[in-house]
Queue: 2 jobs
Job 1
Amino acid sequence: MNNIKDIVNLEIYPIDTSSDFLKDCKKKLKKDSVLQLDNFISSKSLSKIQNEGNQLHPQAYYCSQNHTVLLNKKNMDLKLDDPCNVEVLSNKGCVPHDLIPISSDLIELYNSLVFQKFLENVLDIKKIYPYKDTLSSINYNYYEEGQQLGWHFDNASFAITLMIQSPDSGGIFEYINKGRNYEKNYIDKKLIRSVLKDEYPVNELSVKPGTLLLFYGRNYLHRVTAVTSQKCRILVTLNYNLEEGVSLSENARLTFFGRLK
């Protein structure tokens, strides 16, 4: 099992030593709602993770969902053309945590106190915790040709991802750094309507393999466009909780993994 210094490019991203670097990351995330750290994972470690992801690929569970931007089903109490009642499509494959080898660099990174402390500092969070269930902490996500992640706001307050493999075309991360204030129960329906009609300028991120991405997805509308190549998009999500002993809901586990344990 590797030490974190063999996994993370610490010379570029001194997450273990530099308070100035942490302050810069925190400032950028607060300003832009997204923090993109290219080449965060060392080339050697990335190669290992790519091989692991491709070996696990046949075990992925695939799901397809129609949902609103709030990740709900249609609400019959709302007008059908209400922008928060318009359904979009999300479909992908997923390999859950319990299928990832215990020797994986992903598990070493996820459990690293240095990495966790970095996340806590940048996200301005007192403490993060792994999921209690055996499926949800680390997930490989596979987007095959024609698959996508529809426009939505996250249920979680933040997202942490690692790009493992980019498709040859499509699979672009797009976002709007506004649209909702979850804390004040405010939603900009006019903006959402414009985005769903492709009438609003969006931000695009060119995310290369090895990139760590931190994103405030609860208040900012985002999607991944459909992959248009035979080479699939492989993304790892590193999922933490703000409270100890929390499991992903049974409905979500059945949806994304096809099983509860």
Job 2
Amino acid sequence: MLKKSYLSLIVLCSVFGYLGCSGDPVQFEWQQLESGTNEHLYGIHFADAKHGWAVGTAGTILSTANGGMTWRATSVSKDTFTAVNFATPNNGWLTSIGKVYYTGSGSTWHIQHQVRAPGPRPPGILDMHFITAAEGWAVGGSGTVLHTTDGGNRWENQSGLSKMHLWGVHFVDSDHGWIVGGGGENEDAEILYTRDAGKQWVRQKSNASKEFLFAVYFVNPTHGWIVGSDGLILHTNDSGRTWVRQKSTVNQALRAVAFRDEEHGWAVGEKGLILHTTDGGNIWNRYPMSVQHNLQDIYLNKNVGWIVGAKGTILK
């Protein structure tokens, strides 16, 4: 009888490892929230456990003051908003085609910066990351890299670093940061790294072929992950000097990745895809969800996580 119970436990742990048999100290069970919109959502960020924002198509800006139980809609334009980042519940930024918007109240927004471009259409700003309330980075099409050290009053365009579409940026502190992009038939994958606050950038070998690199996340200056098209997951434990492929067992595009520590992380992507690891990515398990919409972004704090995607999808 004891042997039978033990074997049953092994089977349950194998099938439902993401629920806690792996020893994950914080167990996630994703549930869909009512967003009140059918627009596609591309970015989500929380300033604390209660105050968060989600942004997307047709000028959609959603805010919550209760951890996502209810959402309030605000609109400042018909732009498609691609990313959002808050330093405090009142100080936040969001990005669109060629524009950075800012709020100092958490509710009203104005254009803070517009990217100058020689063509008729400015490049899209695709991702943004603020390290403090003063210092932040934004990246986008045609090699756009923007940097501010005064809360966005002035944005410096670091031109000439790349000509590729840059999809993701992440800094672990003011000095150490990574930018990823490129990929496809016409562009090589691109990883840019700085260890001196962007004074100098170096290219790192991606170990990717023609996959797009969509997002990057580091938990400290040495351990990081990149996700991209065709189920690509790359990992480094030496600040990016070497990037090693991890086996995702999927071929859908992964659009975002986030980790709580060196072991516990999530990646999200096409057709409701959610992957979870409790061992730094040596094994990625697929989390079963009934949602089939593309998932675009994920934000984690110590105990809670949020995911956004197409058709107003918000998961918590």
